[in-house]
Amino acid sequence: MKATIDWSGNASFKATSGSGHSVQMDGPPDHGGNNLGPRPMEMLLMGLGGCSSFDVMSILQKSRQDVTDCRAELEAERADAVPSVFTRIHLHFIVTGNNLKENLVKRAVSLSAEKYCSASIMLEKAGVEISHSYEIHEPA
C-alpha cells in the first residue's frame, strides 16, 4: 500500500492513495490553513470508521441480513499534551434494516472490533481505548 502527500501551500496538503484517489487536507486558520479539508487526525478517525463499517456491512450481508442503512458515529478524545494522540475512541453503529437479528448485528460489531478491523486493532495495540456500541432500527 502506498500514498503520496503533496504540499499545496500554507497548511494544505493533497493526499493521493496508491489506487489513485485523492483528498485535500488542511489546517485551521489559526494554524496557517484555510479550512479546505479535514485535518490529518480527522482522516485517521474517518479511516477507522470506514474500516470498521466495511467489516460490519460485509459480515451482515454474508449473514443474509436485509440491511437498508448503516451509519457509524465516532467520538474521540485526545491527549492534552504534545503529541496529542488519541486516548479513547467510541464507535456507535446505527444499523437499519428489515427484521434484523440483534445477535447477528452484535456479532458483526464484535468480529470487526476483535478480528477484522486492522485500523482498530492497530490503534488498540498503540494504547488507544476503543469501545463499540450499536442500535437497530426498522426502516421508516
UniProtKB/TrEMBL annotation:
Question: NCBIfam families of this UniProt entry?
Answer: PRK10738.1 (NF008009)
Concerning InterPro entries, the annotation shows: KH_dom-like_a/b, OsmC/Ohr_fam, OsmC/Ohrsf
- Cross-referenced Pfam families: OsmC
- Cite the record's Polar residues compositional bias ranges: 7-22
Query: Where is region (Disordered) located?
Result: 1-37
Q: What's the name of the protein?
A: Putative redox protein
Signal sequence segment: none
The domain of life is: Bacteria
